[in-house]
Specification:
134 residues, alpha+beta, 22% helix
Length: 134
C-alpha cells in the first residue's frame, strides 16, 4: 500500500534559524516559507535527493504544532509522510484492519495541494503517520 517516503516533518521553535541551518550549514535547497492557515502551521520544505524535510512552525494560538513544541521544547520529529496511490483505498483498508484515522476520516488538502490523512500514533509504533495521495 505505501510507496515512497515523501517527507519527515520537524517542528521548530525558530523557523529562521532552522532555515539557516539547513540552507547555509548543510547546503540544502530550501523553499520559501508558506503559511498553511487550514493546518495552523508555516511550512518550509528542504529538498533532498531522495525525499524532503518539512520544517513546521506554529501559525496562531490554536496551532497543533504549538502544543507539540510546549511538550518538546527543543522541537523534534513531528510526523513522517508516506505516499499512496489511492487515499480512499488506503483509508478503507486501514479502517478494515482496525487502524484509527485522525479527524473526520475524510481526506483533506495538504501542503502540497494533494489529499492527505493522518493515522493515530498509537497504532503505528508511537509515530504520527501522514498519508499523501500521489
Amino acid at each position: 500500500m505505501i510507496g515512497k517516503l515523501n517527507h519527515v516533518a520537524i517542528a521548530v521553535n525558530d523557523l529562521d534559524a532552522a532555515v539557516t541551518l539547513y540552507r547555509d550549514t548543510l547546503g540544502a535547497k530550501v523553499s520559501d516559507a508558506v503559511e498553511q492557515p487550514d493546518h495552523g502551521v508555516v511550512t518550509v520544505f528542504v529538498e533532498l535527493p531522495n525525499t524532503k524535510i518539512e520544517l513546521l512552525y506554529p501559525l496562531g494560538d490554536q496551532s497543533p504544532i504549538k502544543g507539540f513544541l510546549q511538550k518538546n521544547t527543543s522541537g523534534g520529529i513531528h510526523h513522517i509522510c508516506y505516499e499512496v496511490e489511492d487515499i480512499y483505498a488506503a483509508r478503507d483498508k486501514l479502517l478494515a484492519d482496525g487502524m484509527r484515522i485522525l479527524g473526520s476520516g475524510e481526506p483533506r488538502t495538504g501542503a502540497h495541494g494533494k489529499p492527505i490523512l493522518f493515522l493515530h500514533p498509537k497504532d503505528f509504533c508511537g509515530t504520527l503517520v501522514e498519508l499523501e495521495e500521489i
